[in-house]
């Protein structure tokens, strides 16, 4: 058995994976940035929430986070569909030719 762990990867390999994933799906980076931003904003607002109870605050934060996820998924789906069907003018190999 080698001394290298199964789960440990090289830094160059990790950056190549991240670059490839960012190129394949650009909204992944938007999702990660939104996750970090929601966490930071939520932590700040939790500290300055006033008399609001913790459970109500967490419920509102959960609804805002879910709305952000749904918005990012919708934007990503719209981008993918537009790229595939509107901007790509080459016919696909398995599509039928248009007849007039």
Describe the structure in your own words:
The structure is a single chain. With 100 residues, the protein is mostly helical. The chain folds into two domains: 1-49; 51-87. It is 68% helix and 0% strand. It contains three helices and no strands. It has helices at 11-24, 27-47, 54-86. Helix 2 (27-47) runs antiparallel to helix 3 (54-86). The radius of gyration is 21 Å and the shape is flat. Its main location: mitochondrion. It comes from Drosophila pseudoobscura pseudoobscura. Keywords: Membrane, Mitochondrion, Transmembrane, Transmembrane helix.
Write a brief caption for the model.
One of its GO terms (cellular component) is mitochondrial membrane. This protein is mainly α.
Number of strand segments:
0
Q: Regions with pLDDT < 50 over 5+ consecutive residues?
A: none
Strand-residue proportion: under 5%
Rounded to the nearest angstrom, the radius of gyration is 21 Å
Global mean pLDDT: 79
Q: Biggest sheet: strands, sense, closure? A: none
Write the layout of secondary structure elements.
Blueprint: H1 11-24, H2 27-47, H3 54-86
Helix pairs in contact: 2-3
GO biological process, one term: mitochondrial respirasome assembly
Pfam family, one: HIG_1_N
Domain HIG1: 1-91
